[in-house]
Amino acid sequence: MKKTVLKTLGLAGALVLAGLFFQNFMSESTQQDEGIAHADEDRSLGTIVVNGEGEVTAEPDLAVLRLGFEATKDSADEAQSTVSKQMESIKKALIDHGVDKESFETVRFHVYPYKHYEKEVEKFRAQHIISFETSEIDKVGDLLDVASKAGANIVEPVRFSLEDPTELEHQALQKAIEKTKGKAEAMAKTAGKSKGEVLQISEQGAHINMPVQNYSEEMAMDQAESSSKTVIEAGEVRVVQRVTVVYKLD
């Protein structure tokens, strides 16, 4: 009797396990079928991937000037002292012509041994270069003349830019996206389809091309020998945006 009961219980347990296994198998099979169906649906969805570029230009509203003085002397202390005194004169002249003294920033200061290639005598050279900004674009030439008259013998190219390029970046972005529409329509028409909705937009980042103008030694000499003022043409700032847009192909 006990053996019969045990056999019955064992058979029932086996049937339960078999049922659970079959249920789990059917569930996994259904999920796989649904996954295959979704994959087939995704593959059947046609898309058009288009690149677009938008560009806008504007007059700069900010100029960055870098200038300074260097001297070669018999000792490091003498070279440094000479440069320091001259730089104070240069900064004072610029302040007298409206430059905010708080805007001065030292970008380079060196004191190092120096040998002339034809002489064995060692000397020391000191160099001090400052940077400052101005929003008065039309006075850039005047400021360079003032610095040159005050003794500046190093004048690096003037870099023009925008104080806040955000609005121009947005305008360039809109132009870039607009250009993709025409390309997508032409591609879809050629394929016998039509351009559908936008599925994805990715930005590749803004590129800002800032004009750079030189103040040459010849310009400084010409200005020193005449009463004319140096005129620096700022040019235009160019903002370029590039995007990639994915359209649905209907």
TrEMBL record:
<dbReference type="GO" id="GO:0006974">
    <property type="term" value="P:DNA damage response"/>
</dbReference>
<protein>
    <submittedName>
        <fullName>DUF541 domain-containing protein</fullName>
    </submittedName>
</protein>
<dbReference type="Pfam" id="PF04402">
    <property type="entry name" value="SIMPL"/>
</dbReference>
<dbReference type="InterPro" id="IPR007497">
    <property type="entry name" value="SIMPL/DUF541"/>
</dbReference>
<dbReference type="InterPro" id="IPR052022">
    <property type="entry name" value="26kDa_periplasmic_antigen"/>
</dbReference>
